[in-house]
Design goal:
584 residues; alpha/beta; Gyrase A, domain 2; Rossmann fold; four-stranded antiparallel sheet; four-stranded parallel sheet; 13 strands
């Protein structure tokens, strides 16, 4: 691997050196940004001039005199009240891209200097319940964030905090205890059969629970047996959990996501540690007894009657709820997994809960300035009517049905455009296009915003869609195949056309974009970069003939730009969890 310093950073360093030479006491940031009039514009001169009580345009002129030009920087001009418009040389663009092209693994993107350990809590389905559209965002966003963080060099550990504990399991397990053999062994069923079994058992147990008071009492006692570790109860509970995992895996496989079994650590995993968590919080004075319950109060969090809203760690009857398991999970992740960052990808409606949990952990000393927690609250998936996405009957949409429909809709698009694909290849591409479309629609939206689920738009070849990006990638592969024996090669001596320069500068910004998106937990910024990359490539393709360029060197150089664009699209889409088919 060869790390490549981006042109942005190179220009930034030249400017810092020039500022230092002009005013040694200066510590101003050049504040580079893209400009319509030049490749970059620096506007930190204004603040520096104000601080020094000098004329900003005169100071900018002095700085220009100290900027080294001729290699990276081609030209600098003073603009307006004291801005600097900076143009990078064609040679520098091509040489930097050539260095990236030579790094087949990472495109010259370095690892971060001080990587940490981030535990990502995402994709949290519930045992015995079907996954629905509400589970989509946690899985897709969490998977992308984890890939982006991994790419920057961070060590990530996945945690799928599945709902596998609580009072409802007394009902389910007691029913299984009284009706042995209702669930087939997990290895004998596929995902759909597993969910069918789970639904049947759940409905049957609920019907008995609601109609039979004696069964209801037996179910409540079964909860106590479960929490106390009764062997027979735990065996039935484990069978129930295993059956659910078969189903979870079938859905995650459709989503083209890898979920490792050892990373599925549900609420039950923290059962034994919850009494210790409660004891520690009470001994430290972080939690207090109130009306028999162990709670934590917050001055700034109050209800409608202006009364404090507490976080309940332990109920008055001795039972534990979500707060206890979440706090115990924090202890495990900080002290056992040695995490430096805890990242939770959960529904924005749980923001208050996690705000109280994190504050409690800080008061206890489990979260510090060196160990931080972040709640990546995400918005709701909406239907065309702008309301939470439901079926026509008003029921929550099953995630499997939604994904199947996306693949079916994508098959229509692929079949219409396909020229030399077999039916089997069309179906394979349909899965890649359909699932990619669903993921991209989610990831191209800021996580904290709601978005409308519109399959027609998602699989459109026009506009900001993954299909547009996938077709751009496939088009490049077609050009590279048609080139035959002519291979991509960089030619720094060539003058670049405006469309080539724009594409080249954007390609060079890939690493900076990934680092920024990862640091801000903002996959939509990477998605926006990739869409702009595909758009700039389309403009380049329209304005700059590739295989029919004027000279052999120009053909090779443009093939080189094509190839690097394809590899950047491939890497960027992979970080979002989206496939890039070679042919479409």
């Amino acid at each position: 691997m060869t790390s490549v310093t981006s042109l942005t950073d190179q220009v930034q360093q030249r400017l810092a050196n020039a500022l230092s030479a002009t005013r040694p006491e200066a510590d101003a940031d050049p504040l580079l940004r893209r400009s319509d009039r030049a490749d970059f514009q620096a506007n930190g001169i204004l603040a520096l001039a104000k601080k020094a009580k000098s004329n900003p345009r005169e100071l900018a002129t002095q700085v220009v005199g100290n900027i080294v030009t001729g290699d990276v920087i081609k030209d600098v001009e003073v603009s307006g009240p004291g801005f600097l418009n900076i143009t990078v040389s064609d040679k520098a663009i091509t040489e930097n891209l050539a260095a990236r092209h030579a790094d087949t693994e990472r495109l010259g993107v370095p690892h971060k200097d001080t990587p940490g350990v981030t535990v990502v809590d995402y994709a949290q389905p519930n045992v015995a319940k079907e996954m629905h559209v509400g589970h989509l965002r946690s899985a897709v966003i969490g998977d992308a964030l984890r890939a982006m963080l991994d790419f920057t060099g961070e060590k990530t550990i996945g945690r799928h905090h599945i709902g596998d504990w609580g009072t409802q399991f007394g009902m389910l397990i007691q029913y299984l205890f009284e009706h042995p053999g209702e669930l087939a062994p997990p290895e004998d069923v596929d995902g759909e059969q597993a969910m069918s079994n789970l639904n049947r058992v759940y409905k049957a147990s609920r019907a008995v629970f609601d109609a039979d008071e004696e069964f209801k009492e037996r179910a409540r006692k079964r909860v106590v047996a479960l929490q106390s570790g009764d062997k027979e109860t735990l065996e039935l509970w484990q069978q129930f959990v295993d059956e659910s995992k078969v189903y979870f895996n079938s859905v995650f496989e459709k989503l083209d996501m890898e979920v490792r079994d050892e990373e599925i650590v549900g609420e039950s995993a923290y059962n034994e540690g919850m009494p210790e968590t409660a004891r520690l919080l009470e001994e430290m004075g972080v939690a207090v007894r109130s009306e028999g319950a162990l709670v934590v109060f917050f001055d700034e969090i109050r209800g409608k009657d202006d009364q404090p809203v507490p976080l309940i760690v332990q109920k008055a009857d001795g039972g534990f709820g979500y707060a206890a398991s979440d706090l115990t999970a924090i202890r495990n992740r900080v002290f056992d997994l040695h995490a430096t960052t805890l990242l939770y990808v959960v529904d924005v409606r749980q923001s208050l809960h996690f705000k109280m949990v994190f504050e409690t952990a800080r008061r206890a000393g489990w979260l510090t300035e060196h160990v931080t927690a972040h709640n990546m609250g995400y918005g709701t998936v909406l239907g065309a009517d702008g309301k939470p996405f439901k079926t026509r009957e008003g029921e929550t949409v099953r995630l499997e049905d939604l994904l199947d429909e996306a693949v079916q809709r994508a098959a229509e698009v692929v079949r219409e455009k396909a020229q030399d694909l077999t039916e089997g290849e069309i179906q394979e591409r349909a899965a890649q296009v359909g699932i990619g479309a669903v993921k991209y629609a989610d990831l191209s939206t800021s996580p904290n915003r709601d978005y409308k689920f519109d399959l027609d738009q998602m699989v459109s070849l026009n506009g900001d869609t993954s299909v547009y990006l996938q077709y751009a990638y496939a088009r490049i592969q077609s050009i590279l195949r048609k080139a035959g024996e002519t291979k991509p090669a960089a030619h720094p001596e060539l003058e670049l056309a405006p469309a080539e320069r724009a594409l080249g500068l954007h390609l060079d910004a890939f690493g900076d974009t990934v680092f920024e998106a990862a640091a801000e937990y903002a996959p939509h910024k990477l998605a926006a970069y990739l869409y702009q990359l595909a758009s700039l490539y389309t403009s380049f393709y329209d304005k700059c003939p590739v295989l029919k360029a004027e000279t052999p060197a120009q053909v090779e150089n443009r093939l080189f730009l094509c190839d690097l664009t394809a590899r950047t699209l491939h890497q960027g889409m992979a970080l979002l969890g989206i496939r890039t088919p070679e042919r479409l």
